[in-house]
């Protein structure tokens, strides 16, 4: 199944509460593939978009997802958006956001797994404190659609 994550309102944009500090720290956000954070986007960009393919299969009448992008145990699978500073020249992760498959409406997840469209998650990447969004991101902070 194809998944696209679209993030806007990055916390390093001009005028954001922590924007300058985050830009100076070289903060980036990417999607975690196994242990590696890839497709990183600088915190000052207007948008971040990630597209990935996730495996799906039926297990005892339930749809399960897997592959290198998927973390967690069966029944609690998720994707990670990981934040890190690059001021030292290396990516130093300091925060992550969890996008839970259990929060995706079942009919959308099944339709995407059946090849009926791309599952799209949209979220703002600035958290309530003005910094990078972290922890479990639940609706309405993320919306899921099929395109």
What's the rounded overall pLDDT mean?
96
- DSSP, total strands: 11
Q: What's the main sheet like?
A: 5 strands, mixed
Q: In order across it, which strands form the biggest sheet?
A: 3-2-7-8-10
Rg measurement, Å: 15 Å
- Considering DSSP H and I runs of 4 or more, what fraction of the residues is helical? under 10%
Strand proportion, as a percent range, falls in: over 45%
* Series of secondary-structure elements, N-terminal to C-terminal: EHEEEEEEEHEEE
What would your notes on this structure say?
By secondary structure, the protein is mainly beta. Helices cover 10% and strands 46% of the residues. It has 2 helices and 11 strands; from the N terminus they run βαβββββββαβββ. It starts with a strand and ends with a strand.
Draw up the topology in text.
Elements: E1 2-8, H1 19-24, E2 28-33, E3 36-42, E4 47-53, E5 55-59, E6 62-66, E7 78-85, E8 92-100, H2 106-113, E9 119-124, E10 135-136, E11 142-146
Parallel strand pairs: 1-9, 8-10
Antiparallel strand pairs: 1-4, 2-3, 2-7, 5-6, 7-8, 9-11
How would you briefly describe this protein structure?
By secondary structure, the chain is mainly beta. The chain is built from 2 helices and 11 strands, in the order E-H-E-E-E-E-E-E-E-H-E-E-E. The mean pLDDT is about 95.
Tags for this model:
single chain, 147 residues, mainly beta, 5-stranded mixed β-sheet, 4-stranded mixed β-sheet, 2 helices, 10% helix, 46% strand
